[in-house]
Write a structure and sequence with these properties.
Length: 214
């Protein structure tokens, strides 16, 4: 029985190198956790996602980037991590200390640590549009859609559609009870064989059919 593409194949669509799976790219990186089948689409730099598109993600900061399964990232989107933050409690935000030569003396790391906003978590089945920006410490719920060029500065609810700068919720994709059921079913956590058998239910809008497949 067919079970879909290999989740660890770097290019899951033969002949289309612009599609790169993210889980194999995240291997051996302690600050990344990526679910299967999530991918990045870029005609020139698909395999460089974690070097070009995830910004200021340093091991010494300690923040984690968590990407759920079945996410789609469009060309040019960016995820900004906490290493981009500057201390803002004083009169100047200039990072004098990083240049050394005496400017590091007297610097209190706690002033910078206070700006850290925690891990960035992108739930399952999220679609991130072209040139969208996700800022540090944001949690994006499963099934959300981030519009092209949106700048996400706050958490996004499951199955919400957000757009703009700063991103605002435009609508929910489904009504409240349906969303609750979808989160309870969590089809993205099913074994791949079960997902494959029930693709029509997952792609469709018949909630009872999907529920019966769970």
């Amino acid at each position: 029985m067919s079970t879909g593409p290999d989740p660890d194949a770097l290019h899951p669509m033969p002949g289309f190198p612009r599609i790169a799976a993210l889980r194999p790219l995240a291997k051996n990186r302690s600050n990344l956790h990526v679910g299967p089948y999530s991918y990045y689409d870029d005609p020139e730099h698909a395999t460089e996602f974690f070097d070009r598109n995830v910004l200021h993600h340093f091991d010494f900061v300690g923040d984690q980037l968590v990407i759920g399964p079945f996410c789609a990232f469009a060309t040019g989107c960016r995820i900004v991590m906490n290493g981009a933050n500057h201390a803002m409690s004083g009169f100047s935000t200039y990072p004098f200390n990083i240049f050394g030569a005496g400017w590091e003396q007297g610097f209190d790391p706690a002033t910078w640590e206070a700006e850290c906003r925690g891990d960035t978590v992108i739930g399952a089945d999220v679609w991130v549009g072209t040139e969208a920006w996700i800022m540090p410490g944001v949690t994006i719920g499963p099934g959300a859609i981030i519009a092209a060029k949106a700048v996400v500065t706050r958490d996004v609810a499951p199955y919400a559609v957000v757009a703009g700068n700063p991103a605002r919720e435009i609508r929910r994709r489904f009504e409240k009870q349906t969303i609750a059921s979808l989160l309870d079913i969590a089809w993205w956590d099913w074994p791949v064989e079960q997902i494959t058998r029930n693709l029509d239910a997952i792609r469709g809008r018949d909630l009872e059919r999907l529920r019966s497949a769970a």
